[in-house]
Design a protein that fits this description.
2 copies of one chain form a homodimer.
Chain A (H helix, E strand, L loop, with lengths): L2 H6 L14 E2 L9 H7 L9 H18 L5 E5 L3 H12 L5 E6 L2 H12 L3 E6 L8 H7 L6 E5 L1 E2 L4 E2 L5 H7 L3 E5 L18 E3 L13 E5 L1 H8 L12 H8 L20 H17 L1 H20 L4 E2 L10 E5 L6 H12 L1 E2 L1 E2 L8 E5 L7 H15 L3 H13 L1
Parallel strand pairs in A: 1-13, 3-4, 3-5, 5-8, 8-9
Antiparallel strand pairs in A: 2-10, 6-7, 9-10, 11-12, 12-15, 14-15
Helix pairs in contact in A: 2-10, 3-10, 11-14, 12-13, 13-14
């Protein structure tokens, strides 16, 4: 029988590998609450159904709270966080634009790559992996004629948080846009799109929002939309063109346009939106300020606990990203084997290093419901089991950290 | 209290609008079986977890069966079907490429737009909305120097299926690629990527596969990958660059590359992949040939039943797309009001026309589990209720159609 005839015939479908329970304490995805998973499994309805339009409005309103913005153009793009990066670049950067890009980790490198593909004239501002960029270096690079400055607020490859102070003012003075990757920081690290003067930003759902991956929360303010409207050529991507996506999600993005009904653009990932809506509801219920405090406390508590085993934080305290604890692995430890054992024997995922830091650091997620004492105790206990001791001291350090 | 302080405080989260049950018989999304919804709600695990790698392999293998291809580079892209269009264009078209694009409906127009954004030298071949393109017109446009021919296999805006006969041979003769949009046709209309000589194609999950929207099944053969490898400039999109995505999903796409382990590219939409895997399992269990026959039978049965109410198929019989029945609305019927009543009173979604066909046609999905007698009976009965009669005759016609 030919291969073709075989595939066309009715067949015994293969048995599918069952999905295990994991405690996700890596760089993402983060733990997903049962209520969010249950929301995913609600019945699919049409992307133009009046009820779904209501769901979109609720989701966008919750997202504005999470971003701390009044931007009407705030919506989850139908792509993952990495696709959000493409969207940021393709909408707001034109070929030949001079763009300052901060590079101090893998996600800064990716951004630089995406900007180069878009034809930008790139000005790289660098810092060592594990350190924040000096704000004065960014400001010094912001020469007249600059069109945009792009920074990674939460560098997931190194656990570094980039301070934004002074960047918005410098960008406004030069009529440049301030564009920010907040994939790992959104709702876990203080960030206010409006308060910090960010013109456009993208995030992911699978970090501090505790939603499965697959959407990219996105926001764009008036200066960014003006830039989009004034482009000489439309964005290279039809799918990510915010003037088209926005017409479906929030009506016209052009502030001078007459109000008009939503227009079909693409079929939104209906069930993922259900999940995001529920995940955002949990964020708003807790409140941003309380959530930021909790993430910081959880970060410090876990850092102290893992210090007992000899792990030391990569970033200086004042540059550390609360939702992602990057730790130098103690000398002599077979880190890959230990991570494999944590996963296999204890069902706990932590992440290793990337690029030049592979084999040298661990990246531990402190994200949303993962930033609580219980999951952290499980990790500490499992590590003590595998390392042959230290549980008592490490658990005490954890508890002390939470009580501070 | 300022707006900012208000949003930072812990709040009463708003009540979320509940999700109703719908019978989805529009142009998509299509009905999603409970086992697929339940798969979505399985626990999220890491995108690099060895178990998830196994899930990816199972999904890709099932997808090869659905596409009827041996292409290793067969995978669900982490974007919706519309994003798959962007991926097709951004990977295989370079600025200045001469490209024939068939345009006989909205999705052909979109493709032409995407090709123009990519800098292609566009050769439009047209047919009226509601008709297939004449194969001889496509062949006549395929002059020497052609780089690609792009057609919409299932034109969702008109319910027309584009014959592919002769296109692959003509393209090969000219060293051009044959690129196909099979969003609405995959698994509902006869199509063999390898048998029909298609070099690359994209689809969506929310049509005949009965999976929620959010992924774009994609396949690329050796000629397409060779073209990708020979590009003068990398694709404009970092996210959709198949040489990067492929390294995560299936290893290197370059046939000359040494085997190497999967490399992280982006965080896959883990839970959507669970859903797709289950949806594809159901497809393979039925078998492609049986599935194609069932869709054709369901299409004809419903056409005959709705003919009782005065609806007439837009496309000629030999050009009709089985999974999408586009019907001219009888004169004098307030079609928008009737669709609203079907949704509100009966929970049944059907779609109206797009562009020049708005107000003139209905588009009824005949997709996967929607292509069965039970859901069709519900639609016929609801229509008879709203139109004040005809149920008996229409239901008899439906049954007769299924018994043919």
């Amino acid at each position: 029988m030919s291969a073709r005839a075989r595939t066309h015939a009715a067949g015994t479908a293969p048995a599918l590998t069952p999905i295990p329970e994991r405690l996700l304490l890596g760089a993402g995805p983060s733990p997903v609450p049962r209520s969010v998973l249950d929301a995913l499994a609600e019945p699919t309805i049409g992307h133009l159904d009046p009820v779904f339009v209501q769901v979109m409005e609720e989701t966008a309103a919750l997202l504005r709270t999470a971003f701390d913005t009044a931007n009407p153009a705030t919506l989850p793009l139908s792509t993952t966080g990495s696709g959000g990066m493409d969207a940021l670049v393709v909408n707001f950067i034109e070929p030949g634009d001079r763009v300052v890009c901060g590079v101090n980790g893998l996600f800064g490198e990716r951004m630089a790559d995406a900007l180069t593909r878009a034809g930008a004239e790139l000005v790289r501002v660098e810092a060592p992996w594990g350190r924040a960029l000096a704000v004065e270096d960014l400001l010094a690079a912001a020469e007249p004629g600059l069109r945009a400055m792009v920074v990674i607020h939460g560098e997931t490859s190194t656990g570094v948080c980039q301070p934004l102070d002074g960047l918005a003012a410098a960008c406004r003075e030069r009529e440049a846009l301030l564009l920010v990757d907040c994939v790992t920081s959104l709702s876990g690290q203080p960030l206010s799109i409006d308060g910090d003067g960010v013109d456009a930003a993208f995030s992911g759902t699978q970090k501090c929002l505790n939603c499965p991956p697959g959407l990219s929360p996105f926001t764009a303010g008036p200066r960014a939309l003006e830039r989009l409207g004034a482009r000489a050529q439309p964005p290279r991507s039809w799918y990510l063109d915010l003037s088209l996506v926005g017409a479906y999600w929030v009506g016209p993005t052009d502030p001078d346009a007459a109000p008009r009904p939503r227009t079909y653009h693409h079929t939104a990932p209906v069930n993922l939106i259900y999940g995001l809506r529920e995940a955002l509801r949990l964020v708003v219920e807790e409140g941003l300020a309380a959530r930021w405090r909790r993430h910081r406390r959880a970060h410090e508590a876990l850092r102290q606990a893992l210090g007992v085993f000899g792990f030391e934080r990569l970033a200086p305290a004042e540059e550390a990203l609360a939702p992602l604890l990057a730790l130098r692995v103690p000398d002599g430890l077979d880190e890959a084997d230990l991570r494999a054992r944590l996963l296999r024997e204890h069902g706990i995922e932590v992440s290793g290093g990337l690029g030049p830091l592979a084999g040298q650091i661990w990246r531990i997620g402190v994200m949303g419901v993962g930033a609580r004492p219980d999951p952290q105790r499980r990790l500490v206990q499992a590590l003590a089991d595998e390392l042959g001791g230290g549980a008592g001291e490490a658990l005490s350090a954890l508890q002390a950290g939470w009580e501070q």
